[in-house]
Design goal:
Elements lengths: L2 H4 L1 H9 L7 E5 L6 H13 L14 H7 L6 E4 L23 H5 L1 H5 L9 E5 L7 H12 L5 E7 L7 H5 L2 E4 L5 H10 L5 H7 L4 H9 L3 H11 L7 H14 L6 H19 L11 H8 L4 H17 L6 H14 L4
Parallel strand pairs: 1-4, 1-5, 2-3, 3-4
Length: 339
């Protein structure tokens, strides 16, 4: 996925800032838009020592060579250990963290307080920024409040409202919008994804997320979920919880509990849209079924259920018992149809 072509206006806007860079930029937008890749390519272009006219890094100079190998002395990437593809879990070892830790932020102290190696910028990319807890965010805040010369923080977030207001206020915000359906479907078609419209709808219009979903083998568990949810009041909550729990375990980390909650949230959104006589957004092939189900549910009950699911989404990060968590979700779904 060529994120520069996909977000040409955003890229040109970033390039226009080169002559007067702020100390921190916050790229925000829906998940799966390529914001992280955009931030990395912008960082590469700023570090490149032979910048071509189009603003993209040349990929040939010494700085670009260092950057591509992940060892440029003036660049740091802060991300959860669980997102590091190089980490191999050894037997008996703790699972990599899903959060950016306070030690990672404190580890920037030496990097920030020495001169740059190439006499240019030092750049710190933080992704996803919402993966910081309050203590970690407060540790970062000091660096944002007291800008250091020749330093740029590039923060990337799909959930900016989860960030501390003080973090957001210290950054210049760069919105990354959804591409047109035509552009997004072309990205999927070029990648060989069949039924691009369906995947794009499930991903809420985000081509990157659609590609990820199509390539991750999610269709099997998703079809199970859709079939069971379509049963409405006749759903078997405990049986469905068992099926999804089994799929999560067999995926070996590829299917996360929060992904299931996301899918259920989208189903409830479609029910709410249908209840208001609006077209469904996510589950296009099931539109007729969803309209029929929505007619059985009072609108206030749908709204209350969706709000409760927002809290469940946070709990899904670290549930005490995944099976019991899923059972609770699907029992609550069945309760929507109670007389």
């Amino acid at each position: 996925m060529n994120v520069i072509d996909l977000h040409k206006e955003v890229w040109l806007g970033l390039q226009a800032r080169r002559l007067r860079l702020p100390h921190s930029l916050l790229l925000i937008g829906q998940k799966g838009l390529g914001k992280f890749d955009l931030a990395k390519q912008f960082a590469a272009s700023l570090l490149c020592e032979q910048l071509p006219a189009d603003g993209q890094a040349c990929g040939k100079c010494l700085a670009c060579n260092w950057y591509s190998q992940g060892n440029h002395p003036d660049f740091r990437l802060l991300q959860p250990g669980a997102l590091n593809d190089d980490v191999e879990l050894e037997e008996g070892k703790k699972k990599p963290s899903q959060q950016i830790t306070i030690d990672q932020v404190r580890g920037l102290d030496e990097f920030l307080n020495v001169g740059t190696h190439r006499g240019g910028l030092r750049i710190i990319v933080i992704y996803p920024t919402e993966a910081m807890n309050r203590s970690t965010a407060n540790a970062l805040l000091k660096s944002l409040e007291e800008p250091i010369a020749s330093t740029l923080f590039l923060l990337v977030s799909s959930e900016p409202m989860r960030l501390l207001p003080t973090i957001r206020s210290r950054c210049q915000v760069v919105p990354v919008a959804l591409p047109s359906t035509q552009k997004a479907e072309k990205v999927l078609a070029d990648a060989g994804v069949s039924d691009a419209g369906r995947w794009l709808a499930l991903a809420g219009g985000s081509p990157g997320l659609a590609l990820e979903m199509a390539a991750s083998g999610q269709l099997v568990w998703l079809e199970i979920l859709i079939k069971r949810l379509s049963a409405g009041k006749n759903i078997d909550p405990l049986g469905l919880a068992g099926e999804i729990d089994k799929a999560i375990k067999e995926s070996k980390g590829k299917l996360l509990l929060k992904t299931v909650v996301d899918a259920l949230q989208k189903w409830l959104v479609d029910l709410t849209l249908a209840r208001n006589s609006l077209p469904v957004r996510y589950f296009l092939p099931q539109a007729t079924t969803i309209v029929g189900l929505a007619d059985m549910i009072p609108l206030p009950r749908l709204i209350h259920s969706y709000r409760a699911l927002i809290s469940s989404r946070q709990e899904a990060e670290q549930p005490l018992n995944a099976r019991l968590f899923l059972e609770g979700l699907f029992l609550d779904y069945r309760a929507l149809f109670a007389n």
